[in-house]
Amino acid sequence: QKEVEQDPGPLSVPEGAIVSLNCTYSNSAFQYFMWYRQYSRKGPELLMYTYSSGNKEDGRFTAQVDKSSKYISLFIRDSQPSDSATYLCAMKQAGTALIFGKGTTLSVSS
Amino acid sequence: GAVVSQHPSRVICKSGTSVKIECRSLDFQATTMFWYRQFPKQSLMLMATSNEGSKATYEQGVEKDKFLINHASLTLSTLTVTSAHPEDSSFYICSAGDRVLPDTQYFGPGTRLTVL
User: Fold this and answer.
1) B85: helix, strand or coil
2) Which of A65, A96, B75, B116 is the most buried (most CB within 10 A)?
3) DSSP letter (8 states) at residue A110
4) pLDDT grade, residue B97 (50/70/90)?
5) Best residue of B103, B104, B106, B112 to probe chain A, by most A CBs closer than 10 Å
6) Contact B109, B23 (CB under 8 A)
7) Which residues, numbered 27 to 66 in chain B, qualify as contacts with chain A under a Cβ-Cβ cut-off of 8 Å?
8) Which of A7-11, B16-20, B84-88 comes out lowest in average pLDDT?
9) Which residues in chain B have their CB less than 8 angstroms from residue A90's CB?
10) Is B110's CB within 8 Å of A102's CB?
11) What pLDDT is attached to residue A59?
């Protein structure tokens, strides 16, 4: 079993839809959870950063971490064509490098 | 926000030559920098972790003599691909850990290496 599992999609939604992206993980020692957005041929851009469990909201984006289920989510409200990208979940223990999921490719059509 | 730059953004070289890629943290000090490799439609694979002033720690399967990493200052790390071969063609991305928030990583824009 891989440390971080993420469905690669692709996921296609119409503009304005609510998007739900998810990852599961196996290492209960992970403490830091992040979501990155990556456009084609570009480096990943940090979207959300969460320490331990709970919810975090930033504009149209909400990140949720459920450590008891080893499950994290990213919700995108009112999705826009500009949200079309690959979304990578990533997590880590303190002082270690990030471990990434495979990424989910999202396409938002206008 | 924290900015990480990489240079060059794209490089094409002949087989057998060496290529150096620079990674700079522009507005923060990075005690730790990470080098990743990404193949098309794949996730990022960690190659090595470098701490300023010390030797890099390489992931299993990554040849340290082929991928030379130098982290000379708190804002600069370099990756040199020595004697490059076509199978080294890939997208190389660096990231830097913020000294103030050490568990946050900011990524550079990546360098696309093509070895002919």
Assistant:
1) coil
2) A65
3) -
4) confident
5) B103
6) no
7) 34, 41-44, 46, 49
8) A7-11
9) 105
10) no
11) 96
pLDDT of the residue at B51: 86
Helix (H) or strand (E) holding A90: strand A85-92
Q: Which residues of A touch B (CB under 8 A)?
A: 8, 31-32, 34, 36, 41-46, 49, 51, 88, 90, 92, 94-95, 97-103
Nearest chain B residue to A30 by CA: give it.
B103
Q: CA angle, corner B92, sides to B90 and B97, nearest 5?
A: 160
Q: In this structure, are residues A37 and A49 in contact, taking their beta carbons and an 8 Å threshold? A: no
Q: Indicate if the pLDDT at residue B1 is higher than 70.
A: no
pLDDT at site B64: 92
Q: What is the DSSP string of B47-67?
A: EEEEETTS--EEPTT--TTTE
Q: Edge-to-edge strands of the sheet including A54-58? A: A4-5, A19-25, A71-76, A61-66, A54-58
Residue among A5, A35, A46 with most chain B CBs within 10 A, to mutate: A46
